[in-house]
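User: quick one - fold this with nicotinamide-adenine-dinucleotide bound?
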Amino acid sequence: MKQIRFGIVGCGVISDWHARAIGEIEGAVLTGVTDIRQESAHAFGQKYGAKAFATLEELLTSDIDAVCICTPSGLHASQAIQAANSGKHIVLEKPIGITAEQLDGLEEAVERNGVKLCAVSQYLFSQAMEQAKQAVESGRLGKLILGDITMKFLRTREYYQSSSWRGTWAMDGGGALMNQGIHGVGMLLYLMGPVKRVTAHVRTLYHQIEVEDTAVALLEFENGALGHIVGTTSVYPGYPRVLQVTGENGTITITEDQITGWRLRDEPEERLSAGKVTDTSSVPTNFGIEGHKKLIEDFVHAVWEDCQPKIDLKKGREAVDLILAIYESSRTGKTITL
Ligand SMILES: NC(=O)c1ccc[n+]([C@@H]2O[C@H](COP(=O)([O-])OP(=O)(O)OC[C@H]3O[C@@H](n4cnc5c(N)ncnc54)[C@H](O)[C@@H]3O)[C@@H](O)[C@H]2O)c1
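Assistant: Sure. C-alpha cells for the protein plus nicotinamide-adenine-dinucleotide:
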C-alpha cells in the first residue's frame, strides 16, 4: 500500500501529537509543515524531518495527500475548506468549526470535493469507550435512563495568556465547553445518542476572558433519556472528567479514559480498566499520543479503503451543534430544540 503523505498546518502545542502519531504509523509519513510564524515552521520541520513551507497555499500545492489542521479553532473551517478545494484529505482538530455557517460551508466543500475528513476526538478511541459503547449497543445496559458528564477543570491565567486567541469568541469560539469540554460532550453523545432539547446557563465567573468559564446544561436525548453537562475551567484544584451512563440494568462510570465503575445487575464482576486515571483537569497536555495514533490510523485506513473515518464530519459536528445550542439557550433563556 502507498504511504499517505501528510502535511501539518499550525506548529504549536498539539501539532507534536500529530507529528509523533504519524511517525509511529507504518502507512503514514510527514512531509511538509507550515505556520504563520516562519520560525515555528522551520524548527518543527527540522525536528520531524519535514519541509517547511512559507504558506498553507504552498503546502497544499505540494504532493501531500492529507493535512492535519492544528491552528486556532476559528481558522479550522476556512482552512479545511481550502484543503478540500485542493483535493486534500483532512484531519481536523476540535472543534471542527465554531459557527453553524462555518460548519455548513465545510460540509458543502467536503461533499463537493469527495475528500475524507476526520474530526479529532481522540478519547473516543479509548478501550473504555469501546467497552461502554458495546454495552449500550448490545442492549446490556437496557433502556437508557440517564447520561451525564462532569468536567470540573482548572485553567490558569497564564494558560489564557499563552496565546492571544485563547478565551476569545472569534478564535476559540467559546470557552469551557467549546474548547476544553468538547471532548466530554462528544463522549456523552457517542454513548447516549443525539440530544433533542437543551436548557442551559453559561457564565464567566472567574477568569478575565470573553467566553464562558462555567456552564451547566440539562439534556433530553432523542431516545427519551435525560442528562446533564457540567463544564468549567474555574474549579480549584481541578477534578478528573467523570462520565456516567445509566440504563435500566445498571451504571457504567468512565473517569477520564478509564472505566472506574461497572455495576450491571446480571454481571457480578466489575470490568474495570487496568490502567490508571491520567488527569488532564489542570494540566491540559497530560495525555499520551495513543488516541491521536488510533484516530490517524483509522483515517489512513479510510483513505485507503475509500470509506468513512470512524469520527467523520457528521460526528464532529454533533458536539459543536450541541454546544452552540447550549450558548443559545443561555443567551435567550429558552429551551432549544436541536
Ligand atoms: N485534541 C486535543 O486534545 C487538543 C489539545 C490541544 C489543542 N487542541 C486544538 O488544537 C488547536 C491548536 O491549539 P494549540 O494549543 O496547539 O494552539 P497554539 O497556539 O499552541 O498553536 C497554534 C499554532 O497555529 C499557528 N497559526 C496561527 N494562525 C495561523 C495561520 N493563519 N496559518 C498557519 N498557522 C497559524 C500559530 O502560530 C501556532 O503555532 C486548537 O483548535 C485546539 O482546540 C486539541
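One thing worth noting: DSSP finds ten helices and 14 strands in the chain.
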